[in-house]
Task: inverse folding
């Protein structure tokens, strides 16, 4: 039972410890990360990220994860959070308030969805903040996913720092989301995307 963040826990097979020792800094002008392929549009999924947000964003909002039709996580400079996807005819969106702005340290956001016509949930810092019924499946997209900026049209540039972006091909439970925030432990099963600003070379974390 290794110790981390003053909490004792046991790692299971495939679990990942995300230490957040480094971060990506986005200037709100032209910084973004483009992923090498379009995201999977299938449910279930979980999208999550750790970020600090600046109220000095030029645009009203910025994207922590932008998968276009297949799912996105967006934070407004007022602390409003939106998680949504496109089902082929309309946007399915859920919004909550309470994401800390201009505060030191990373805060977490997670969006979980188990399937069409089921309940989607938004968590902030491990706590459930809002939920609603999904309508349909996410539509496919040919655009590659991005971190920090919209794919096309409006820029919606993120200003702040992002440490980790995660996508699962399953819905994480409330306890798993809480552990992700409180202990920085990622369950290994069905982990589809794990982007961290650190890399462990076998002996130490490097940029």
Result:
């Amino acid at each position: 039972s290794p110790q981390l963040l003053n909490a004792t826990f046991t790692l299971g097979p495939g679990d990942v410890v995300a230490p957040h020792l480094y971060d990506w800094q986005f200037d709100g002008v032209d910084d973004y990360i483009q992923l090498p392929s379009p995201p999977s549009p299938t449910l279930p999924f979980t999208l999550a990220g750790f970020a600090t947000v600046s109220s000095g964003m030029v645009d009203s909002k910025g994207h922590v994860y932008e998968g276009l039709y297949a799912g996105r996580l967006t934070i407004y400079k007022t602390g409003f959070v939106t998680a949504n996807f496109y089902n082929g005819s309309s946007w399915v969106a859920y919004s909550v308030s309470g994401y800390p702005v201009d505060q030191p340290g990373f805060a977490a956001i997670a969006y979980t969805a188990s399937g069409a016509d089921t309940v989607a949930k938004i968590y902030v810092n491990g706590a459930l903040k809002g939920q609603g019924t999904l309508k349909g499946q996410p539509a496919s997209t040919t655009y590659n996913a991005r971190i920090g900026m919209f794919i096309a049209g409006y820029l919606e540039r993120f200003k702040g720092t992002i440490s980790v972006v995660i996508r699962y091909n399953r819905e994480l439970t409330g306890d798993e989301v809480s552990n992700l925030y409180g202990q920085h432990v990622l369950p290994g099963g069905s982990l589809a995307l794990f982007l961290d600003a650190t890399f462990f070379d076998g002996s130490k974390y490097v940029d």
